[in-house]
């Protein structure tokens, strides 16, 4: 597999795409104003403890308090009390009215390892499957681990030497020592550690042996990435390229069109079928449709082929859009149990390529597939879109017929209460005015109300809005 990382870094916005065999599979977008907090460590102050919710709210100095579940509190902290100072790390960004979610199980990630200051023991990433390599890395981790702390070996450490792992752990230990010293002398709430920016996280989280090229269009970011690699992995320096062409880097590498379709509701499949992806606050629903694909054999085989292609695309879309939480997939109904199990196994195989933890819970009694995927940063939908001022987030507005009926009802109620002048002007959207002025409709309304009505179409008026004005003439 040919893997390329393409990064576009601007002061206002940073974008990164992971491309596998010419197709984008992951996309990260960050903006300075969006308040990306995941990974940040704070010295916070407990503002409120809610025993009924088994949670506490922690002041971290921002607009919203972080919330901390009791299950995410280290046993050494004891019982939380209002006014208590506490070290926490953000594990999930704020979303909607919810504040960021926190834990006291602090983690400092490096390129090859993660240091857990309040844990003890070692672990190896589950994505390293070779048992001999897992054993070797666990032994190395035991040797380089600071006393009383925990070390988790990351996937990128596969094949690394003891020197490389030790250097990474030493860097993280020194970082923790500086952070802990600052925590002792700083009042709460205080930001103690801010997670590194996207350019550096490319090296830390994405650059592995399978990546053949890293392309960066910002000279400062390119320089910082090279400086870090010079220290951590000099052999990888040859993979990093500075892009200086005036054409947008995503356009140049042929992925801009793919990314522009990222948030479309419908996703076309090569066979002619399509997916419909609907995201709500509670969950995401994905519906699979045959579309124009009719197949050339039996109905069962046609459905099976569409579902197999859909399974691969669903796994890609979850990564690409970074959809988290509860996901429900409605595959096309399959009669054969063998087909059902094959599609589920293929979906699981494709989702194993995802860096984010996910779980397929199987088929429900209604034939729906349940999936959970870890939520971290805000998804692309919330970053790139805001609530529509016309429909207020519903995705729909009242029909012209409904608005016209509302106008008639309001006029009749006002007339019954003797609150109407003898001559009125009704201003509304042209589609509403068209309905009100249908043959006989206006005359009948004037007769019922015993009033003279003038209709005025206002193209710039919101389709749901209207005005009833007194006509001085």
From TrEMBL:
Write down the Pfam families for this protein, in alphabetical order: RNase_E_G, RNase_E_G_Thio
- What sequence ranges are listed for the domain S1 motif? 39-111
Q: Which cofactor does it need?
A: Mg(2+)
Q: Where in the cell is it found?
A: Cytoplasm
Using the record for this protein, list the coiled-coil segments as residue ranges, or answer none.
none
Q: Which GO terms describe its molecular function?
A: endonuclease activity; hydrolase activity; metal ion binding; RNA nuclease activity; rRNA binding
Tell me which Gene Ontology terms the entry assigns under biological process: rRNA processing; tRNA processing
Key words of the record: Cell inner membrane, Cell membrane, Cytoplasm, Endonuclease, Hydrolase, Magnesium, Membrane, Metal-binding, Nuclease, RNA-binding, rRNA processing, rRNA-binding, tRNA processing
Example GO CC term: the record gives:
cytoplasm
Q: Which InterPro entries does UniProt cross-reference here?
A: NA-bd_OB-fold, RNA-bd_AU-1/RNase_E/G, RNase_E/G, RNase_E_G_thioredoxin-like, S1_domain
Which protein family is named in the record? Belongs to the RNase E/G family. RNase G subfamily.
UniProt-recorded name of the protein = Ribonuclease G
């Amino acid at each position: 597999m040919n893997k390329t990382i393409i990064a576009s870094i601007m002061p206002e916005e940073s974008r990164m795409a992971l491309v596998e065999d010419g197709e984008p599979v992951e996309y990260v977008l960050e903006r300075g104003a969006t308040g990306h907090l995941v990974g940040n460590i704070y010295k916070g102050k407990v503002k409120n403890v809610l025993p009924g919710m088994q949670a506490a709210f922690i002041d971290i100095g921002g607009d919203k308090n972080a919330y901390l579940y009791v299950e995410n509190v280290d046993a050494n902290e004891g019982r939380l009390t209002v006014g208590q100072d506490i070290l926490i790390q953000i594990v999930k960004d704020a979303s909607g009215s919810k504040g960021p979610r926190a834990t006291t199980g602090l983690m400092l990630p490096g390129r090859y390892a993660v240091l857990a200051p309040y844990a003890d023991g070692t672990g190896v990433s589950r994505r390293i499957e070779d048992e001999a390599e897992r054993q070797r890395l666990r032994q190395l981790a035991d040797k380089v681990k600071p006393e009383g702390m925990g070390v988790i070996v990351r996937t990128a450490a596969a094949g690394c030497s003891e020197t490389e792992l030790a250097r990474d752990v030493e860097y993280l230990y020194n970082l923790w020592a500086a952070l802990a010293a600052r925590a002792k002398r700083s009042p709460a709430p205080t930001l103690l550690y801010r997670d590194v920016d996207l350019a550096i996280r490319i090296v830390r989280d994405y650059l592995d042996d399978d990546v053949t090229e890293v392309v960066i269009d910002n000279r400062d970011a390119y320089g910082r990435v090279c400086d870090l690699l010079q220290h951590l992995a000099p052999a990888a320096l040859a993979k990093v390229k500075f892009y200086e062409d005036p054409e947008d880097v995503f356009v140049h590498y042929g992925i801009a069109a793919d990314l522009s379709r990222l948030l479309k509701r419908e996703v076309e499949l090569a066979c002619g079928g399509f997916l419909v992806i609907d995201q709500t606050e509670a969950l995401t629903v994905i519906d699979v449709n045959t579309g124009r694909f009719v197949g050339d054999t039996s109905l069962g085989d046609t459905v099976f082929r569409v579902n197999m292609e859909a399974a691969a695309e669903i796994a890609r879309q979850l990564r690409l859009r970074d959809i988290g939480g509860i996901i429900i997939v409605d595959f096309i109904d399959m009669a054969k149990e063998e087909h059902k199990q094959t599609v589920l196994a293929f979906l699981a195989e494709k989702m194993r390529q995802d860096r984010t933890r996910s779980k397929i819970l199987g088929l429900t009694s209604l034939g729906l597939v349940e999936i959970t995927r870890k939520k971290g940063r805000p998804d692309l939908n919330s970053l790139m879109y805001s609530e529509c001022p016309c429909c207020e987030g519903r995705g729909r507005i009242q029909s012209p017929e409904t608005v016209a009926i509302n106008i008639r009802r309001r006029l009749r109620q006002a007339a019954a209460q003797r609150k109407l002048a003898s001559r009125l002007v009704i201003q509304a959207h042209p589609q509403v005015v068209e309905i009100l002025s249908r043959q006989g409709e206006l005359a009948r309304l004037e007769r019922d109300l015993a009033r003279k009505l003038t209709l005025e179409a206002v193209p710039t008026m919101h389709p749901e809005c209207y005005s009833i004005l007194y006509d001085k003439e």
